[in-house]
Amino acid sequence: MAEARVWHKAVFEVLLAGTFLSCLLNPLMGSAQAAAKATGVSKYVGPGSCAASACHGGVQPRSVSSVLQNEYSTWVVRDAHFKAYRNLESPVAQRMGRLLGIDNPAASPKCIACHSLSVAPQEKARDFDLEGVSCESCHGPASAWLVPHTLKGSTTQKSVALGMFDIRDPARRSEKCLACHLGTAEKNVDHRMIAAGHPDLVFELDSYSAIEPAHWKPAADPYHDLRLWAVGQAIQLRESLEKLARHTQSGSWPEFSDYDCFSCHHSLTKPEGSWRQERGYEHRAPGSPPWESAHFTVFRILAKEVDPAATRQLETQMQRVYEAASDWNSSRSDVGEKALAASETTNRLGAEINQASFDQTRAVGLLQAISAKAEAIANQDTRSAEQATMALDTIFLCYEKQAGSHPAVRAAIDALFQEVNNPSAYSAPRFSAQMRKLSAAIRDSGISAH
């Protein structure tokens, strides 16, 4: 009941804002559109421009339009993106600020670049307050398409032509999310920030989309989420390689945030109990941190199906990147050149995968192929195990929606999540054993591609 009261209070506040804004919306839209026409470029108008109850500020989702029309309400009440700016005022954020020499994280360009819709004054059609990661953070500056997208006959394609960001395309969506969830030249979470308390930037497009409160209607394609996962893996691998190349040209090299955190940050044991020492250190010397290649570990399985020749090329390139980046005697330029070469191949594969077909046969094949790589994936360490677990969960959910439930398989995947729940205590032998149980559950449940 208490949660319900909080919900209703928040929605009531949203409705009041929407009612007031609806009185102001027409002149605001007019001035925003005039600004866009004057400059030829769409500018930012702030989240309040979407808050009217007749636009995106309704309380209940509607089925009579192509959108739910409660998107703003969902964002304010339930979405962590709304809280992102307020999090900069938390005790942890304040402590991070002290450690990093930042007086006020909520006013620091380094922090608000990702924690809010922070844009230069010349990019605004009007002034607005910082309110977290809001509508235009994802959908793009709205002044040019704000009015047209409300009119009869409007289409997404027309809005995109006027400056809307097309996040329906999995590749574009992944790029938009990764701008903060991985970083760019302008938005960068480095090892220093992580040591001060910033969370490590772990991301997987479909899993993170699934835990976000939905403010969109489900896709018609039952295997849409599988495509999101597949394309997201390609884009994140490409962007990770480009980030590595970018860091080789920075003032501080190596940048440890590019590397596998848990090659250093793990529970220590006596030598006779160390699975890492028993496993050995393939393609690198003992004691050298390995470059983080988790997004390649599972992605390569799908890539081989789509384009075997390009995948063989990428396999070779990725090994060269891994070896060079994990060797302190390598030159910066050598690491950067190898990373960019692998990035180009990944980009081509990503484009092919975005056009590939995803169906029940492919889903089953991936479930079988990934779970069959138990030891290889487990020994790549914690982040690879996490990515494999999220991939298996996505793929199985897509399959299950079409083919019915299989409780034993679901239980086996849930047990994988338990294995990666405490990353510093991750055990490759335990994870590998659980993957073998999953493989057996898939077989015994009669799940087959034929």
Summarize the structure.
The chain has 450 residues and is mainly α. The protein has 20 helices and no strands.
Structural descriptors:
2 domains, 450 residues, mainly alpha, single chain, 20 helices, disordered N terminus
Describe this protein's structure:
- It is a single chain.
- By secondary structure, this protein is mainly alpha-helical.
- The protein folds into two domains: 2-166, no CATH class; 181-444, no CATH class.
- The protein has 20 helices and no strands.
- Helix 11 (224-247) packs across helix 13, helix 11 runs antiparallel to helix 18 and helix 19 runs antiparallel to helix 20.
- The chain is globular and about 65 Å long.
- The N and C termini lie far apart (49 Å).
- The model is unreliable at 1-29 (pLDDT under 50).
Count of distinct structural domains: 2
Mean pLDDT: 90
What overall geometry do the principal axes of the alpha carbons give?
globular
Helix content: 55-70%
User: How many helices?
Assistant: 20
How does the SSE layout of this entry go?
Layout: H1 2-39, H2 71-78, H3 80-83, H4 91-100, H5 109-115, H6 135-139, H7 156-161, H8 170-181, H9 191-196, H10 205-211, H11 224-247, H12 275-279, H13 294-306, H14 308-325, H15 332-355, H16 360-372, H17 374-379, H18 382-403, H19 407-419, H20 428-444
